[in-house]
């Protein structure tokens, strides 16, 4: 790959041009599409049509993976990152049906791709005022959604075929949500020591993330206005003085330019 090609790839993945931003939004949309496809096909038999779509997804993910490796300044470190390892498994799982291997269930690892949305948060705040005004709520919700998708995928991958209570992705999602909220109806349980450990992780980590979301939803509204004296960034919407150092702050209200 030539130096010019690498520069173009680096601009698309890391640049600040409008073209680069559109490209990264397209990658995000593709990621969400693959996740929805994984969920939808968990309810169906994986025939030739599904395998053909799998192959297309696999080729696109492989091309994206090669591009990211090419522009990575420290390639070895990049290759051992958790998200990179998840991409490797995703590539194999999407392309495996072409080799006749029974690895289709590994497609749920693609849910880890949601982690890539974090690199877009800065641009989302700049492009959409809603995200800027509700940054803490948005981040807490994303954290919870990522956890739910990852754990649901893990439940489905480890229990499908061996646990008669987990027939599709919806069953795995149902178990994850009931365990996370500690509702625990008991109609679906995970089998084996691994299943019990997954249940423990869902309950402990899930409750923590759920409470964090509830905290930012119901606490008094704050606005982001950095104090020029002490640097405190969150203040009450009607604050005149910084609560930390007492300096006067000037929070813009509606109608002010």
UniProtKB/TrEMBL annotation:
One of its GO terms (molecular function) is voltage-gated potassium channel activity. Keywords: Ion channel, Ion transport, Membrane, Transmembrane, Transmembrane helix, Transport. It holds the Pfam family Ion_trans_2. It comes from Salipiger thiooxidans. It is a multi-pass membrane protein. This is Voltage-gated potassium channel. Coiled coil: none annotated. InterPro entries: K_chnl_dom, VG_K_chnl, Volt_channel_dom_sf. PANTHER family: POTASSIUM VOLTAGE-GATED CHANNEL PROTEIN SHAB, VOLTAGE-GATED POTASSIUM CHANNEL. It comes from the Bacteria. One of its GO terms (biological process) is action potential. Residues 145-218 form the Potassium channel domain. GO terms for cellular component: voltage-gated potassium channel complex.
């Amino acid at each position: 790959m030539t130096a010019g090609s690498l520069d173009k790839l680096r601009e698309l993945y890391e640049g600040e041009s409008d073209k680069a931003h559109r490209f990264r939004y397209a990658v995000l949309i593709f990621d969400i599409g693959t996740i929805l496809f994984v969920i939808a096909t968990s309810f169906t038999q994986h025939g030739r049509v599904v395998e053909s779509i799998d192959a297309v997804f696999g080729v696109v993910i492989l091309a994206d993976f090669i591009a990211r490796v090419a522009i990575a300044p420290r390639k070895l470190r990049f290759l051992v990152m958790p998200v990179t390892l998840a991409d490797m498994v995703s590539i194999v799982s999407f392309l495996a049906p072409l080799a006749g291997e029974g690895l289709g269930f590994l497609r749920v690892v693609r849910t880890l791709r949601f982690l890539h949305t974090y690199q877009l948060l800065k641009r989302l705040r700049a492009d959409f005022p809603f995200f800027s005004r509700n940054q803490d709520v948005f981040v807490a919700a994303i954290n919870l959604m990522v956890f739910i998708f990852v754990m649901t995928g893990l439940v489905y991958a480890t229990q499908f075929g061996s646990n008669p209570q987990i027939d599709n992705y919806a069953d795995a999602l149902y178990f994850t949500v009931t365990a996370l909220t500690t509702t625990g109806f008991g109609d679906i349980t995970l089998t084996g020591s691994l299943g019990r450990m997954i249940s423990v992780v869902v309950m402990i980590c899930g409750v923590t993330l759920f409470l964090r979301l509830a905290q930012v939803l119901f606490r008094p509204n704050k606005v982001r206005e950095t104090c020029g004296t002490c640097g405190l960034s969150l203040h009450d919407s009607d604050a005149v003085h910084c609560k930390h150092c007492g300096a006067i702050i000037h929070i813009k209200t509606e109608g002010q330019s």
